[in-house]
Amino acid sequence: MPQLIPVTTTRLGGHIPLLELLPDAQPLSWVRGGDGMVGWGVFAQTKVKGPDRFNQARTWWHDQLEKFAVTDSVHTTGTGPLLFASFSYSDSEESVLIIPEVVVGMKGGKSWITWIGDKPQPVLLERAEPLNSLSYTWSNGTISTQAWKENISSAIKKIQDGKIEKVVLARDLNALASGAIDPRLILRNLAEQYPSTWCFHVDGLVGATPELLLRLTRGMVTSRVLAGTISKTGDDEKDLARSASLARSSKDLEEHVYAVNSVVASLTPFCSSTNVPDSPFVLHLANVMHLATDVTGAVSESAHHIDSFAILAKLHPSAAVCGTPTNSANEIISSLEGISRGRYAGPVGWIDARGDGELGIALRCGEITQNSIRLFAGCGIVAESDPEKELAESQVKFTPMIQALSKI
C-alpha cells in the first residue's frame, strides 16, 4: 500500500491580507471583503469535459483524497485539502480542477493555513510588487457590436413568437498588452473597487463576480440570484431614484423571476425546505445596481451523499446565464451567440473534502493568455428588451475589468 501524503491544517490567528500573499506562479483566489481562500503551488491538476463533467470532477477529487492523511486542528468548512475549480459554461469545453499545495483561508477574523507534504509550515510573505505599467490595444471580440445587436433583435422576435421566455446572449472584447498580464494586480484592483464581490482567479480566468451560485455549509445551501441591471451615475440622489425605478421595472422584474424560479426548481429536490423572499432587493455595486434574491434551503436528511458537485449539476446553467426554458435557451445561444464562452458564465470557486463549498458564476471576468486578455459580458433578453439598451448594459458590465486593467 502506498504511503499516504500528509495534509496539515493549523490556525494562524487574526487578519491576514490574503491577496497580498499570492506568488506569481499559479495563484488561486476566491476572496470577498477580505475573507475567503487563496492558494498556490500545484499538487495535482486535471481537466474534464462532457455532460457528466461534474461527476468526473467528483470522482477525480475523491481519488486524490484517498492519497492523503489529514491532520486538521481547525475543523471548519474549507479546512483540510481543497479543490479550486473553474467549470466551463458548455459541456463541450474544458473545465479546470486544481489542488494547491498551500491554501490560506480567513473567515470572520479567524485565519488558517493548509499545506500538503511533510515539509515545515510555509512562511507567509506579503508580496507588494511594484505595479507594472502596461498599455493595451483594444479590438472587437468575435463579433461586431452591430452583429450583436442584430442577434438581440433575432432573440426578441423568437421570444415574441412564443418560442422562448428569456435568453442570455454574451459578447467578448479583446485586449493585447505591452507585457505579461499579472492576475494578482487585477485581483487587488477589483477587490479595492468592488469589495462586495467574490474576486477569483483559476488558471488564467480572473474576475469579480457579484453572483453566488452555491454555498453549501453543513447541510445549508444558499444561492444569490442576480438578474435585472441598471447603471449608476455617481450622483447619490439620482442613483436612489434609479434604484427605485429598477425595483419597479416590469422588464427587469420579469427577467429576475425567471432566474429565481430556475434556481428554486434546481434546489427543491435536495431540500426539505426552502426560503424565497417575496421580492428582490437592490444590490448596489460601484458601477451598477442589480435586482438580487438570496434563496436558501436545508438539505434533506434523507438525501444521502448530497455534495456541491451534485447540486452544481442541477443548478448550472441557471436562467441568469442561460434563459428559460433551459434547453430552448441553450439552442438559441448556440445558433445566435456566435462566440465560445469557455469558462465564462460557468461555476468557479472551491470545494472541500466534505463536499461543502462556495462557488460563484464567472461573471465580470476575463481570460488571460500571456500578453492578451479576452473579456466577457452578457445580457438577459426578454420580450421588452431593446438592442441599444442591451448593448449599453454590456458595456457597463465590461467596466470593472477595463478599470482593473487600466490601473496596472
From TrEMBL:
<protein>
    <recommendedName>
        <fullName>isochorismate synthase</fullName>
        <ecNumber>5.4.4.2</ecNumber>
    </recommendedName>
</protein>
<dbReference type="InterPro" id="IPR004561">
    <property type="entry name" value="IsoChor_synthase"/>
</dbReference>
<feature type="domain" description="Chorismate-utilising enzyme C-terminal">
    <location>
        <begin position="145"/>
        <end position="397"/>
    </location>
</feature>
<comment type="similarity">
    <text>Belongs to the isochorismate synthase family.</text>
</comment>
<dbReference type="GO" id="GO:0008909">
    <property type="term" value="F:isochorismate synthase activity"/>
</dbReference>
<dbReference type="Pfam" id="PF00425">
    <property type="entry name" value="Chorismate_bind"/>
</dbReference>
<dbReference type="InterPro" id="IPR005801">
    <property type="entry name" value="ADC_synthase"/>
</dbReference>
<dbReference type="InterPro" id="IPR015890">
    <property type="entry name" value="Chorismate_C"/>
</dbReference>
<keyword id="KW-0413">Isomerase</keyword>
